[in-house]
Amino acid sequence: MLIINIKDNESIDRALKRYKKKFERTGTMRQLRARTSFEKPSVKRRFEILRAAYKERMYGNHHEN
Q: Which residues are in coiled coils (predicted)?
């Protein structure tokens, strides 16, 4: 359970924003979505390789010019 201490004179919007950020950092939703369906290790690895190739194309070629 996440606990957010509301500071003096802090608006509820600000506290909600801090809560959302803290919740995002815990990775709870990502974990739940990953558990909803089983993904074979070979499929997971293929996806990682494709993502690495995409990043290399996007970010790796800027230094060669």
A: none
Residues with Cβ within 8 Å of 19's Cβ and at least 6 positions away in sequence, in order, are 2, 4
What's the whole-model pTM score? 0.52
DSSP three-state, residue 9: coil
What are the tens digits of pLDDT across the range 7-65?
A: 889 899 999 999 999 999 999 998 998 889 899 999 999 999 999 999 999 888 665 55
C-alpha to C-alpha distance for 10 and 47, rounded to whole angstroms: 43
Q: Where are the domains of the chain?
A: 12-63
